[in-house]
């Protein structure tokens, strides 16, 4: 019984942590997609997928000081922030592409997404407005 | 007021987007690494094999990439490499009196010796040549020697060479003294255009790194875990490191897993012709029919942190034509001046005609902080000039474990074992070097320190053991295993920028 109680507390704590790190995915309104899978998101942010929703995918990362950056690296790219940075250093040297554009916070990322067809970003839900389109992360 | 601020922010936003798009079109980046190697027991054999001195300090790479992406369908990449290496000149003058190297270290043929030595204004050569040929003094002048250099008859060459013997010996001695030098080299590592259609189909044209295995593609020190790549990708490359041609490449998605492919048609392996090996000169013509085709197919499974398998293959021909110039003239005509173009005859013949087939497999497993990686490659060369063939088998296995130390530091202990062997069934397949040595193994271990992602410091110890045939013909009989081994301490610092 005590074990079940501990498990329940741990699950609650995990859920609370996850919600604190939750972000939403936004694209330019010209993008036709209504949703994106985690695998697709990972491919776009590792330079493996170049098209999404009928547009050339332009991923936008948040600065590593933004808490959503670490959450994104962990949940979607499934790497530590250090490994994700190292991944792009390596990819660049191998000639496989260059790292996504970086914006300092969610508001700045949203502004770029609103202006750039094909842009995609993960942002704080509070910055989303009619200039961008929120899509479901499956 | 709020509207003005909003408009201002929108303006800044648009400007930022425009700036970002412009910056995205053209990028310059690269990497550099500096290495130091100390050979505890550098024998003459492995010194020649690896081209290393006892202590080597080198700016191994300073490579700059120019990446141009004008629109979503076009990409161009140029990688320019610079190397500066203080090392011993491993070129062997040998016992052949007709071999001599110029001040740049290039070997000279007989005819070139004439031009070279006469350029030193050694007037005594003229008299000595006349004497050697049994001609009256003054029959051949210095100017005539210089003029006839491209097409001298064998008799004249022989006479000149005999006359030059003391000078050759003197020049050879000065070359010995000048062996240690600093090499500097700028090279185009890759230069290609990409036509990007979609993720499944893309075209590449130009010089590109051969898509074979793992570490030939990884290519550079910030990506490579060890100080030295497996020797089967560098010193004795089973697959050519880079090629010139066309490539079709892309990937398909299988759920969460990726299937990627590369198919190419190129001008094949480039390298010196068999006749020019050791001479330092490659006067041959690379045949345009030396086509090669090959490819790599890889499957990356989204299991653990990633499991990948790949198969590489290539087949091609390497044919080189060597072109001789000859002129047969009466001595009286020869002495009247330079040889007329109409008297020159050109004879072409193949001095290399090989067909090769290569197949290899690679795998990489990443689980947590553990990485296990290996490649195995087999190459068979069919020498079509001399009946026979050479088979070559190379493999390596590597294991590494990454220990994170905060967000900006990490250290990865690693160990690797590599074995390469070859067997030549005729004397004509010379591209693998001395047939008395039929392989080597390399065992190494080290630490790779990662600092702020862009910096790496590697410390490594290794043992390279050359493997000798059972019945060597060119080696002393009392040679021991240790004479053919190198124990090396290496360090390397690399930075990506």
What does this structure look like?
- The complex is a heterodimer of chains A (138) and B (497).
- Helices cover 45% and strands 20% of the residues of chain A.
- Chain A has a 6-stranded mixed beta sheet.
- With 138 residues, chain A is of the alpha/beta class.
- In chain A, strand 3 and strand 4 (55-56) form a beta hairpin.
- Chain B is an alpha+beta fold and 497 residues long.
- In chain B, 18% of the residues lie in helices and 49% in strands.
- Chain B is built from 8 helices and 20 strands.
- In chain B, a hairpin with a 3-residue loop joins strand 16 and strand 17.
- The longest helix of chain B has 24 residues, at 2-25.
- The chains are: A alpha/beta (138), B alpha+beta (497).
- The interface between A and B is medium-sized, with 27 and 42 residues.
Per-chain topology:
The complex is a heterodimer of chains A (138) and B (497).
Chain A: H1 2-20, E1 24-27, E2 35-36, H2 38-45, E3 51-52, E4 55-56, E5 58-62, H3 67-77, H4 81-94, E6 101-103, H5 106-115, E7 119-123, E8 133-137
Parallel strand pairs in A: 2-8, 5-6, 5-7
Antiparallel strand pairs in A: 1-7, 1-8, 3-4
Chain B: H1 2-25, E1 26-39, H2 44-50, E2 55-71, E3 74-88, E4 100-101, E5 107-108, H3 110-119, H4 124-133, H5 142-147, H6 154-177, E6 180-196, E7 202-209, H7 215-218, E8 242-254, E9 257-266, E10 284-286, E11 292-301, E12 306-326, H8 331-335, E13 345-367, E14 370-383, E15 388-401, E16 403-405, E17 409-424, E18 437-451, E19 455-468, E20 485-496
Helix pairs in contact in B: 3-6, 4-6
């Amino acid at each position: 019984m005590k074990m079940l109680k501990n498990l329940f507390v741990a699950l609650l704590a995990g859920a609370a942590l996850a919600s604190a790190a939750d972000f939403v995915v936004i694209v330019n309104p010209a993008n036709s997609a209504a949703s994106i899978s985690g695998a697709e998101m990972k491919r776009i942010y590792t330079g493996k997928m170049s098209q999404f929703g009928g547009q050339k995918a332009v991923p936008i990362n948040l600065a590593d000081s933004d808490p959503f950056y670490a959450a994104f690296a962990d949940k979607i790219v499934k790497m530590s922030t250090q490994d994700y940075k190292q991944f792009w250093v390596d990819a660049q040297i191998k000639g496989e592409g260059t790292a996504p554009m970086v914006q300092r916070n969610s508001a700045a990322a949203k502004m770029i997404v609103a202006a750039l067809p094909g842009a995609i970003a993960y942002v704080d839900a509070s910055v989303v407005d009619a200039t961008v389109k929120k899509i479901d992360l499956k | 007021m709020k509207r003005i601020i909003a408009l201002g922010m929108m303006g800044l936003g648009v400007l930022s987007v425009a700036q970002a798009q412009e910056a995205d079109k053209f990028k310059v980046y690269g990497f550099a690494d500096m290495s130091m190697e100390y050979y505890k027991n550098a024998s003459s054999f492995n010194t020649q094999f690896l081209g290393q001195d006892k202590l080597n300090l080198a700016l191994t790479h300073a490579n700059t990439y120019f990446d141009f992406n004008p629109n979503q369908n076009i990409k161009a990449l140029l990688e320019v490499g610079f190397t500066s290496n203080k090392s011993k000149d491993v070129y062997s003058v040998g016992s052949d009196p007709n071999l001599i190297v110029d001040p740049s270290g290039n070997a000279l043929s007989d005819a070139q010796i004439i031009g070279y030595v006469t350029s030193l204004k050694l007037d005594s050569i003229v008299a000595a040549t006349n004497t050697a040929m049994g001609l009256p003094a003054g029959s051949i002048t210095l100017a005539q020697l210089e003029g006839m250099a491209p097409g001298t008859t064998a008799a004249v060459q022989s006479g000149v060479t005999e006359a030059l013997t003391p000078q050759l010996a003197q020049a050879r001695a000065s070359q010995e003294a000048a062996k240690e030098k600093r090499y500097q080299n700028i090279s185009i590592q890759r230069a290609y255009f990409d036509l990007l259609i979609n993720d499944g189909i893309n075209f590449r044209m130009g010089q590109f790194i051969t898509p074979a295995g793992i570490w030939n593609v990884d290519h550079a020190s910030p990506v490579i875990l060890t100080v030295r790549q497996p020797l089967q990708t560098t010193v004795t490359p089973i697959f050519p490191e880079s090629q010139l041609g066309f490539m079709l490449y892309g990937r398909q998605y299988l759920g969460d897993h990726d299937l990627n492919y590369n198919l190419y048609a190129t001008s094949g392996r480039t390298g010196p012709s068999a006749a020019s090996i050791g001479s330092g000169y490659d006067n041959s013509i690379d045949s345009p029919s030396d086509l090669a085709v090959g490819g790599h197919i890889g499957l990356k499974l989204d299991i653990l942190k990633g499991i990948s398998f790949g198969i590489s293959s290539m087949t091609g021909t390497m044919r080189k034509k060597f072109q001789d110039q000859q002129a047969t003239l009466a001595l009286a005509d020869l002495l009247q001046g330079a040889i007329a173009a109409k008297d020159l005859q050109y004879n072409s013949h193949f001095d290399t005609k090989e067909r090769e087939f290569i197949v290899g497999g690679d795998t990489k497993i990443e689980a947590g902080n553990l990485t296990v990686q290996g490649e195995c490659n087999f190459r068979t060369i069919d020498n079509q000039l001399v009946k026979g063939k050479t088979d070559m088998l190379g493999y390596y296995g590597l294991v590494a474990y990454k220990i994170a130390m905060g967000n900006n530091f990490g250290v990865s202990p690693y160990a690797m074992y590599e074995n390469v062997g070859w067997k030549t069934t005729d004397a004509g397949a010379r591209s693998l070097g001395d047939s008395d040595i039929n392989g080597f193994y390399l065992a190494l271990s080290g630490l790779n320190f990662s600092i702020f992602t862009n910096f790496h410091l590697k410390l490594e110890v290794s043992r390279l053991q050359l493997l000798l045939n059972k019945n060597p013909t060119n080696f002393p009989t009392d040679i021991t295993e240790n004479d053919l081994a190198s124990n090396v301490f290496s360090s390397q610092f690399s930075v990506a920028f």
